[in-house]
Amino acid sequence: MKYKWLYFLVSLLAIVPGLFSLFKWGLNPSVDFTGGSLLELEFEKEVKKEDLPEIKSLIEENGFEVNSIQFSGEKRLLFKTQPLAREDVSSITVAIAQKKNEKPIELRFDTVGPTLGKELLEKTFIAIALASGFILLYVWRQFKDPMFGVTAILAMFHDSLVLLGVFSLLGHFKGVEIDTLFVTAVLTILSFSVHDTVVVYDRIRESQKRLRGASFNDLVNKAVAETLSRSINNSMTIIFMLTALFLLGGATTKWFVLALLIGTISGTYSSTFTAAPLLVVWNDLKSKKTRI
């Protein structure tokens, strides 16, 4: 843990831009949270970027407000609109058919009311708070020391801030939205991050029993050295799979896979280079306080 402050600096460099983006621009929520409709249409010919303003104005001329239009394929467009009824979708496709001389095929149509969206957002925060609280109490109880539980949670929040910051930047510059799949990814990453951290902590606990005369700093270094290759090998198998899914998978799961990929990389780093150094800093402060 000789370079623990360098590890903290790397973490800050990863977190600070995202924090700035979160405070300045926030996240870009999908209709899952704000309410509205998602309509995905497939055209016979390839749709170009310069065609989007014409299609948007065509829909709005028929009395439907369009919040955003995104490409979901070369011939596919994903519309985010005000809440639509089934007959409204028919009116939109007919209007486009009359103007473009081709009737688009409806691939997806989902509507979420604003009340349901608000309720889902509240439940998301409650779920994250409950998961964090249970993990804190469980790790604290298993290792019989609050510093293990608190530092594990701090490392977990490190991964959450990295993930949220990246998606805030993507939302502002690329229009990427967060939806219920993103929430699933966040909760998955919380458990993955703590899983690797607990492996390191467990090795520290074993060394404390066998090497009673060794300093805590040496025990942490020993635990990190013994678990680092295992953590990297385990994470790389997941990273390879997620990278393949991101490059070759469908548009509907693309950002969900990216969230898992970012969280996996961040979780692998934080378990070794954030959680363990935090443990050393906590123990050093506790030792100084005891001496005083």
Approximate helicity band: over 70%
Counting DSSP H or I runs of 4 or more residues, the number of helices is: 9
Sequence stretches where pLDDT stays below 50 over 5 or more residues: none
Provide the succession of SSEs. HHEHEEHEHHHHH
**Overall mean confidence score, pLDDT:** 86
- Tell me the strand percentage band: 5-15%
Do you know the CATH architecture of the largest domain?
A: Up-down Bundle
Strand ordering within the main sheet: 2-3-1-4
* Name of the top-level CATH class of the largest domain: Mainly Alpha
The biggest sheet, with number of strands, parallel, antiparallel or mixed sense and barrel status, is: 4 strands, antiparallel
**How far apart lie the N and C ends?**
24 Å
User: What's the domain count?
Assistant: 2
- Coarse shape: elongated
Radius of gyration (Å): 24 Å
How would you classify the helix and strand content by structural class? alpha+beta
The named CATH superfamily of the largest domain: Multidrug efflux transporter AcrB transmembrane domain
CATH names the topology of the largest domain as: Multidrug efflux transporter AcrB transmembrane fold
> Strand tally, please?
4
Task: Report what the structure shows.
There is one protein chain. The chain has 292 residues and is of the alpha+beta class. It contains nine helices and four strands; from the N terminus they run H-H-E-H-E-E-H-E-H-H-H-H-H. The model has no long low-confidence stretch (mean pLDDT 86). Helix 1 packs across helix 6 and helix 7 runs antiparallel to helix 8. A four-stranded antiparallel sheet has the order 2-3-1-4. Helices cover 72% and strands 10% of the residues.
